[in-house]
Amino acid sequence: MRGDAAADHANQFAGVADAPEIPAWVLEDGAALRKHPAFPQALRLHAQLIAGNLERSRDLVRLTSEEAQLTLGIALTALHLARNPGDPRSGATLTRIQAFAARYGLASANRVAALISLKRHAGYWRQVDVSEDRRIKRLEPTEKGDALSRLIAQSTLAPIQLLSDRFDYFSLLENDPDFRARYSVEGINLYARGVRLALAIPDAQFFMGQIAGRQIMFKL
Question: Can you tell me the distance from the alpha carbon of 152 to that of 172, in angstroms, rounded to the nearest whole number?
């Protein structure tokens, strides 16, 4: 998923394109994992990893523990990874992330701007001028921000890897740019289609809307 196709998939956030096609092997492996006898153990590992990550870093609590913060961070990463390398205007921008937040009622434009400022001030994202169009201020992750997105992805893939002996998901995450981009984009597309913890488990909303709420929820 590169070039124009990647940019089109990134535009899915605004409802412009169809969701990216998921490889058949992912669907097949996912169906098998749900039937795995160790599935409850994998869920427990997932909760332990998330709670552990949050306990070790105050930054993570500030930047990922509340639904809007976490989702906007994933959307920023998806827009960045799925950008068209041949189009300097593509990628993550404040305007695009504000439009995404407005579409799904995540946060007001002013709050999105404040959250992006927080991510920049904490050293996870930076603003890059686009020489072809000075009006565009593209957002890109720093090394610190890239490490954070990998940590979040690894925490999600670790339970999957525990159950799967067919594929090395960690290797795919580190060495296959297409997999990493597709992984981030599909995560946001699932959110856009209503796959949300707070909808599946209404009581989760009590935690998801508060700072450190996810940490407490997964610890429980």
Answer: 15
Residues facing 104 on adjacent strands = none
pLDDT on residue 101: 92
H/E element holding 174?
Answer: helix 169-175
- pLDDT tens-digit series, residues 91-113: 899 999 999 999 988 889 999 99
The contacts of residue 149 (CB under 8 Å, 6+ apart) are 73, 74, 77, 141, 184
Sequence-ordered alpha helix ranges (H) in 82-136: 94-103, 109-121
d(C-alpha 70, C-alpha 101), whole Å: 12
pLDDT tens, position by position, 56-86? 777 777 777 677 888 888 899 999 988 888 8
Give the pTM.
0.74
Compute the distance between CA of residue 211 and CA of residue 196 in angstroms, rounded to an integer. Answer: 18
Listed in sequence order, the residues at least 6 apart from 97 whose beta carbon sits closer than 8 Å to its beta carbon are 72, 75, 76, 79, 112, 116, 139
Q: Phi/psi class of residue 212: alpha, beta or left (left: φ > 0; alpha: ψ in -120 to 50)? A: left
Those residues whose C-beta lies under 8 Å from the C-beta of residue 25, and which sit 6 or more positions away, are 166, 167
Whole-number Å distance between alpha carbons of 163 and 32 = 9
% of the chain with per-residue pLDDT over 90: 20
